[in-house]
């Protein structure tokens, strides 16, 4: 491809670079950026997160997110995921 140099001018993800070097049909279903996605929040998890937020938001001098993470029933959620979900809700 004589015009491939134009693609190098823009930021790429590792999956896209692999696809560029190995061929545009080299990525199989389930590979690349979709593989690193976090599991979606269920309605029960959202309700629990909402309840924990209202419970700990009035605590002075405490880290609300740390308190929520300590009492969140679903293990494996990171601080960043909890903050992102709270902002989304």
UniProtKB/TrEMBL annotation:
GO cellular component: replication fork protection complex
GO terms for MF: DNA binding
GO annotation, biological process: DNA repair; DNA replication checkpoint signaling; replication fork arrest
UniProt-listed InterPro entries: SANT/Myb, Timeless
Database matches in Pfam families: HTH_TIMELESS (PF26019)
Name the record gives this protein: TIM protein
